[in-house]
Amino acid sequence: MTASALTRPGERDRLSVKVSEIDWTFVILTCVVAGASVAMLYSIAGGQWQPWAADQLTRFVFMLVVMLGLALVHPKWWFRAAYPMYGLLLVLVLMIELTPLGYVAGGARNWLNLGFIRIQPAEFVKIGLVLALARWYHNHTAQEARFSWKLIFPAAMIGIPFLLVAKQPDLGSAMIIGLTGAVIMFLAGLSWKVVATGAAAAIAVIPPFVMFGMKEYQRNRVLTFLDPASDPSGTGYNIIQSKIALGSGGFLGRGYGLGSQSQLEFLPERQTDFIFSTVAEEFGFVGSFSLLVCYAAIILIGFRIASLSHSHFGRIAASGMMAFFALFVLINGAMVMGLAPVVGVPMPLLSYGGSSMMTIMIGFGLVLSTRVHRYSELPKGHGLF
After folding, report:
1. What's the CA gap between 135 and 75, in Å, rounded?
2. In this model, does residue 222 exceed pLDDT 80?
3. Do you find a cis peptide bond into 228, omega within 30 degrees of 0?
4. What Cα–Cα distance (Å) separates residue 35 from each residue in 1, 117, 133?
5. For the chain, what percent of residues have pLDDT higher than 70?
6. Angstrom distance (rounded) from CA 314 to CA 324
7. Which residue has the higher pLDDT, 22 or 13?
8. pTM to 2 decimals?
9. N or C terminus: fewer CB in 10 A for the chain?
10. Cis peptide before 169 (omega within 30 of 0)
11. Helix 152-166 vs helix 75-98: angle between axes, to the nearest 10 degrees?
């Protein structure tokens, strides 16, 4: 048994004990990736802190404090907040469509201007979805999670935000929402027959959806992904330049601040969607592989934390948070290598951006909270609280 398991329940609530129970390896790896982000943003700005590096560093330091604070919050408060948070975030998404507060950025109406702050609700919906699904599965049996008519409720929890976000249109966020929900249902025990049927249905729906359900520019992105050379100066430009950056780095890279694709601005969105290509160009295979090792370590530690929780809510919630983090890494990595269409999914903690970083760090706060309070158990019940 661990020292924490032998500690009296009352003593486990002491602040010093809680702080000692935080997984500091997880925290350090998070800081390493964020540090790489600041360094790369400084490099691609020509050795200047503005316009990206200083903001990114400030945001990360602030959110690091928030993450550590959330790690000390007992899971019962996350449990109680799950449904209200999910409902509030759906309201914010609807406000984009139904009120003048929503505005267009990057071709999608997916931002909400609240006056004192601008936020992208689709980012935070992922946290609300994970918590709501974790609470639902906590209150239901393994048989109900495997297959029953009650699965219509988690399916609706996933489908509603997916459709609302896809309509904006923000296909990248919609894809993450749908896949995260699907992974949680699978981890919760969904029958393999249902999984196989759902996968087959999704594959069958993709061709008609691409041809008739997408806007023309979105459809061009998908079709060009299959053959970027067919439009090298148009929709294929991003993928081609990203591949050039990836290949030109070689084994050891061109050197810090010496990437021609990023420094000469051939690489599009080099501070956000394609920042990993900049890493590969300046630090080569060694640098980009090392960064991926850090990501893999974070994901593995996160799933291990989830597996140690005595609470079913904690296991599902922490697993869900790590699932959407892993999906960010996989989709962005595939995107910059030309293995997936460009859908605007950032590389987590590495890409410049406030909403994405806030989402990830709040999610990590929940994961660490699960670690700190892993011996806590939550009662089952079907009421709102």
Report:
1. 11
2. no
3. no
4. 36, 25, 33
5. 92
6. 16
7. 22
8. 0.89
9. N
10. yes
11. 40
Strands 102-105 and 118-119, bridge-based pairing: unpaired
Of residues 270 and 264, which shows the higher confidence score?
A: 270
Partner residues linked to 112 by β-bridges: 102, 119
CA-based nearest residue to 305, from 255, 373, 226: 373
User: pLDDT tens digit string along 327-359?
Assistant: 999 999 998 888 888 887 899 999 998 888 999
Question: Where do the H-state alpha helices sit in 147-274?
Answer: 152-166, 171-187, 192-208, 216-226, 237-248, 260-263
How many CB atoms within 10 Å of residue 272?
20
Alpha carbons 197 and 144: distance in angstroms, whole number: 18
- At residue 385, the pLDDT reads 40
Task: Name the residue with tokens 């981890």.
Answer: 187
- Per the listing, tokens 């394609």 go with 274
**What is the token pair recorded at 212?**
């008739």
Q: Would you say 348 and 356 are in contact if contact means Cβ atoms under 8 Å apart? A: yes
Amino acid, res. 349: L
